[in-house]
């Protein structure tokens, strides 16, 4: 009996210990009109689910219960149950939603409308539009400060990062950056804002306090023509020490020291790499490679690409469930 | 007739809005005139010895075969794996160089072709506008020459049809450089997998 109990106990312990923090990874496939779901531990595809026309931006609520997808050609945001991948409802988004960011509290959602130069603010609980904020031409990148007080929008044609007060919905500062800004990302301390410029080929490091550019990071890769280096997605580790920048058709992700803002490494991933997402424990970083139709998995501690996983047609965005 | 012109304007308008004003590049994709080896290869940097090796008959013949799109990618990858069994890193790098030196010029020629395609569409759109203007003038004449008007209209219909067909084919035309990029990248991955 004792032995049986011991076996049972160890089996139980094993049972609880074995499934390490496996999370679901959601990849939007722009051309496939679907989302591929991966397991973050086995790195295998769990399934592929239709999500509407031309899915691009993708994010998940902090409690992991709602998955938001910009269905660009449907002109709305579709919301799914991440467990079942069934659509629960839609949110109004304005025309051609491309990218959005969720307030750290999970509400509201800030959506960039590329075609009509607006940022639409939507309440994720009431599903109502709270505000439409006029910004520059072709709004694209969206970021939010860790305290949720400042929302950043970048406009591709005006070449600016607009600082928006999240309470008054008013722009209080504009920072001119290099050509075609695509993405804005704060570090967790909130004292640095990284804005990538796709055509300019740089990442501007901005002090959010003074709204001044403190440094411009540029990239050089031996054997790669400069015009192929097109920075898009940016992700920063929680401790702020490592910054990853996806370099588009250079097919590389740059690893930057978050303290000195110097490039330390370039990792060869797949073709036309745009967006990235960490697992919650920051063991892995997933990248979407739009032309090779796969996702690369980067071992964050080792700065190493460990696997590429084929997904759907033209993967665009990626998010990892928080739980 | 009016509807046709309207449809044409809409098509042309949409095409412009989507692709910008550059007639040399009518595609949605960003124009990238040339690829660079470093975009797909992080293996050893090719030196003179490697470039020399790339021209040897064995590697050149293999590159010729692998480059062809009619050879399915899986078979090409299997051939690379077979070659990698006995090849050293210099030979593998040479194979990469040989493939790149074949696919990039091919792709550049395609891009020049797309520029010609784009320019032809611009010319055709202009010709359609000219036909329309001419027809308007002919209709205003005191005694319109209806035979000539019919002939003009027929020409206009043809040009419009060709324009629209080509516009529809544009999506596919613009995809072809991407298809080549995908192939050279996939082959690079297969070769890199064989590096010792």
Structure overview:
Chain A: InterPro entries: Host-pathogen_enzymatic-act, Lactonase_7-beta_prop, N2O_reductase_N, PQQ_b_propeller, WD40/YVTN_repeat-like_dom_sf, YVTN_b-propeller_repeat. Chain A: Keywords: Signal. Chain A: This is Membrane protein. Chain A: It holds the Pfam family Lactonase. The complex is a heterodimer of chains A (323) and B (196). Chain A is globular. With 323 residues, chain A is mostly beta strands. Chain A is built from 1 helix and 28 strands. Chain A has a domain at 186-268: Thrombin, subunit H (Beta Barrel). Chain A has a 4-stranded antiparallel beta sheet, with no helix packed on it. The two termini of chain A are 37 Å apart. In chain A, strand 21 (242-246) and strand 22 form a beta hairpin. Chain B has 196 residues and is mainly α. Chain B has one domain. Helix content of chain B is 77%, strand content 0%. Chain B is built from 6 helices and no strands. Chain A binds chain B through residues 221-225, 227-228, 230, 249-251, 266, 268, 270-271, 291-292, 308, and chain B through 30, 32, 34-42, 45, 178, 181-182, 185-186, 189.
